[in-house]
Amino acid sequence: MKRKIFFSGMAAGAALLLSACSSTFTPMDLSESDSGRTLTVKVGERFTVSLPSNPTTGYVWSFDAPYDEKVLILSSDTFANPEDEGVTGAPGRRILTFSVVGPGRSGIRLGYKRPWERNSRPARVFQLLVFATGESPAPILEEEKVVTPRVGSKGQIVPERKGVFD
Length: 166
Hints:
mainly beta, Immunoglobulin-like
């Protein structure tokens, strides 16, 4: 009897542990089916958004609204060619990689539309709300900043003052 209670308690504990782990899981490779989700990530992590795209039709994914660059930065934007190489006009995937650089929240909103059709609604929309947790990286101290001199068109070093009357 004690053995039966022990094993049923262990099974219940394992089920509880697995359910807790699955609720905190955050996928780092997102697709169009993840549109509308809320993603929780830690500062220093990266995630990708892979969206079907066919630029030969004129439709492209573009940002419909700015995102908070204190929370996220776009670290990579690539287009993956279709599997059947040599097929002109075949659809592929636009892959956006974001790096989480600070705590906070930011929305990402992309629209799939033709850039020249300014007053039209996007054919498809991808949106994501990102919550970034953790600590900000340590700020760069003033004495640690490296100053790169400005160089003119003839190779000369240009003074930091930009105006004539400074």
